[in-house]
Amino acid sequence: MNINRHFSLRPYNTFGIDARADFFASFHTMEELEEAISEYGRLSAAGHQNDILILGGGSNILFTRDYPGIVLKNDISGITVVREDDQHIYLKVGAGENWHGFVRYCIDRGFAGVENLSLIPGKAGASPMQNIGAYGVEIKDVFHELEAFHIKEKAVVRFSAEDCQFGYRESVFKHTYKGVFVILQVIYRLHKMPVFNTSYGAIEEELERMKVTELSLAAVSQAVINIRRSKLPDPEQIGNAGSFFKNPTVSAEKYAVLSTLFPGIPGYPSGEGVKLAAGWMIEQCGWKGYRSGDAGCHGRQALVLVNYGNASGKEINQLSEQIVESVQEKFEVMLEKEVNII
Ligand code: FAD
Ligand code: EPU
User: Fold this and answer.
1) pLDDT tens-digit series, residues 221-235
2) Assuming Cys at both sites, which of 74, 239, 267, 338 could form a disulfide with 96, CB separation 3.0 to 4.6 Å?
3) Ligand index nearest the alpha carbon of residue 117
4) Is the pTM value of this prediction over 0.90?
5) Which of 35, 53, 74 is the last residue of a domain?
6) Do 117 and 35 sit in the same domain of this protein?
7) How does pLDDT run across 300-327, given as a tens digit for each residue?
8) Residue nearest atom 25 of ligand 2, based on CA coordinates
């Protein structure tokens, strides 16, 4: 087991923050994970803090400091069919598989359900963490089960969809079980016959622009990719972690008041309340395109904070606090961070 010391995490987080981990290792199997944890236990007995951070693609994380423990990068690979019936196919996916690679795998074989989630960065293992979502679909819609390793008890536990307590950008792993489990494998249930979902956002408009006359998984995927590319910065070019904040939900009464004060404020019915567009509010506060040093608010999507090169995680986090304050002041709405702050 190769454990690195004082290891730069810059290539391993899409914000491109140059934080260092006291210890760093990659694992490809559960056995390697156990080995890394026990080896770290021996090394940290000398007085290091007993912190373990599991890393996927680092696309939803902001390092605001060096990490005083071990960062373990999940590289468990493999996609296997575990069950099949007339309508569905169940695929078990290693947590270290690239998410978009898995989406392409499904599209190539005619398995439907994840095409609207094309081009989301990161790994399959992180997909249940915040119940990833885009263009009208969330992971909970195709999730069947996952296997996770309990770090302290050294035991594998299975979680059903109900156990995961999925919500909008939420799961039990972000709260009750934060830092308790390592997700090893996820089983998704895909449809053999596509049920297309093109009603969200600009998908239909884009399909029309693409001159698609017959819907296919590949066409829907390409439409989603085109829309995403037109709005979201590519982390290969500009450091970012996608939406920095969640879209907040307010009561219908509060939305009525906001609509009077701010005519045209976007709002979408959501459960009992109305979901607001955080990007719109941030833009109204004048932050869109703002830059201070190398930390900024993206010019095409105000919900995305960016690192133009050498911003520190602290600087980006400070900018996010200023944004929260000004949205609170103008709209009396509190924004919640979506990105995991370390
Ligand atoms: P990481 O950033 O590595 O980890 C995220 C969190 O999960 C951390 O707390 C980490 O400790 C934990 N974790 C990761 N893997 C495991 C594991 N195996 N076991 C236990 N804990 C684990 N998200 C959306 O939902 N929808 C979008 O449309 C979307 N668009 C994006 C666009 C861009 C340009 C970017 C950069 C990000 C976007 N995201 C989006 C956010 C991000 O891609 C997702 O949250 C993704 O699932 C994160 O995966 P990751 O492997 O990079 O996770
Ligand atoms: N808007 C503005 N100004 C901006 C940004 C957005 O006015 O700078 C307005 C848009 O005009 C639109 C509304 O806000 O009326 C919503 O914008 P958009 O469709 O771009 O989506 P979003 O709400 O900003 C969410 C997700 C994305 C996901 C897309 C598509 C959250 C926090 N974000 O963004 O997820 O890809 O919808 O489904 O829910 C992520 O989680 O990292 C992420 C990128």
Assistant:
1) 999 999 999 999 999
2) 74
3) 1
4) yes
5) 74
6) no
7) 999 999 999 999 999 999 999 999 999 9
8) 134
